[in-house]
Amino acid sequence: MLRLPGDELVPAPDWTYNHAVSIDADPSAVWPWLVQLGQGRGGFYSYDGLENLVGCRIRSVFEIRPELQQLQVGDRIVLDGRTGFGPEVVRLEPERALVLGGPPNARGSQVTWAFHLLERPDGTTRLLERGHGVAGQGVGEKLGFGPYLMDPIGFVMSKKMLWTIKGLAEATAR
To answer: pLDDT tens digit string along 82-135?
Structure first.
């Protein structure tokens, strides 16, 4: 497997996933959409209605907003608007990598959620979303941080997110 920034944060994951899409634009057209990710920011470009059914208060925006283009290591990307729950930015390499995560929690669970922009010689970009995780001790940790719920839910939500970002970046590049 291709080693990418952030992989070292969970060196022995229990599970890993990779989702990817090819985008007919260079990384500079894709990056602004990734920087806007988060509740109270640009949303997740996925199924807002499904996210809001569980109370996440997500609203995706479909334009690049200058006020959402500031992001730095240590910033939190909120997933749930009720609780403020979400990972921190742990690696930020403009137009190359955005890695979200944090240290293991008290029960030993740790997850990274990363976005990598792989520039191709023809000027297109491969947007790779990668997750690594270790599920800590207890049934709740195995369900919440293991592949059992994350794989099926993540696959559906990620597919929509990646295809939406593809469409937005390609339209921006035109």
So the answer is: 777 889 999 999 999 999 998 888 898 899 999 999 999 999 999 999 999 998
Say if residues 73 and 89 touch (Cβ distance below 8 Å).
yes
Whether the CB-CB separation of 102 and 74 falls below 8 Å is answered with no
Alpha carbon 23 to its chain centroid, in Å, reads 17
Dist CA 170 CA 174 (whole Å): 6
Residue 101 has phi, psi (to 5 degrees) of 170, -150
pTM for the full model?
A: 0.88
CATH (residue range 7-173): 3.30.530.20
Query: In this structure, how many other beta carbons lie within 10 angstroms of the beta carbon of residue 75?
Result: 15
Query: In degrees rounded to 5, what are phi and psi of residue 107?
Result: -100, 5
Half-sphere exposure of 75 (CA within 13 A, CB side): 18
Domain boundaries, the chain: 7-173
